Amino acid sequence: QFKLDKYNLGLIELVVGPRFAIGQNASVKLYGIGDQVWLGDADYFSAGGGGVSARTTVGDLGLLEAFVEQRHRDFRDSTNFPTASQQTGELLSTGVTSDIRFGALHWTTRVGYDQNRAVFDYNAYRRYSIDMAFPYEFSLPMFGERHQFVIAPTIGFSWANYYAPNPIIDPFRYRTDREQRYGAIFDAQVYKNVGIRTQLQYTKINSTLPNYTTDNFSVSIGPTARF
């Protein structure tokens, strides 16, 4: 952040594990997870855990995958966020993803459920979510050769119900968040397996506690490499 450096964010996540084939069309993956996050130029939280996922093909249409993962998150207090440690606890995530192809058009979906347990119940919640994207692949001649492009409109919704009121904000009102996400991703091949990806996203959160109601528009651009 150029002006408010307490929102400087850093994230490293490592997900690693073997995948085992089951016949010709299915597989199971066991994996470990490690996270390290910095916020405001200070340690924010670290996490460790693991998960399992199962994948199968859906005829000739595409893929279907289900997963369950658990991680322990250890939050740390800092000058900018002196009560962060109150969020320490267990995060359970489960979901189903799909990628269905209709020629050059994909239809990808993720339906998920998260259960977060924390030191204080007003930081604990159940969250349900659904996200969809519609990637479309095409190629165009540029600089004497054809380059691959992908454009993908995205849409998503989630709702989170918290376990208890926050006595500091409103001791009588439970927090419930409703989030809407709209955006698009544009991926352009630059040279061989190297490209540039641009993502636009508008996010709106309506909360029963007004101080958590937000509108946010973001633009991110970065390099990609495919293997």
Word description of this protein:
The chain is an all-beta fold and 227 residues long. It contains no helices and 13 strands. Strands 1, 2, 3, 4, 5, 6, 7, 8, 9, 10, 11, 12 and 13 form a 13-stranded antiparallel sheet that branches. The protein starts with 8 loop residues before the first strand and ends with a strand. The model has no long low-confidence stretch (mean pLDDT 94).
Could you give a quick summary of the protein structure above?
The protein has 227 residues and is mainly beta. Helix content is 0%, strand content 71%.
Q: Helix and strand layout, with pairings?
A:
Layout: E1 9-16, E2 19-22, E3 26-39, E4 42-58, E5 62-75, E6 89-102, E7 105-118, E8 125-133, E9 136-142, E10 145-162, E11 176-191, E12 194-207, E13 214-225
The end-to-end distance, rounded to whole angstroms, is 32 Å
Radius of gyration: 20 Å
Order of helices and strands: EEEEEEEEEEEEE
Global morphology: globular
What fraction of the residues are assigned to beta strands by DSSP? over 45%
- How would a textbook summarize the main sheet? 13 strands, antiparallel
- Uncertain segments are none
The helix/strand class is mainly beta
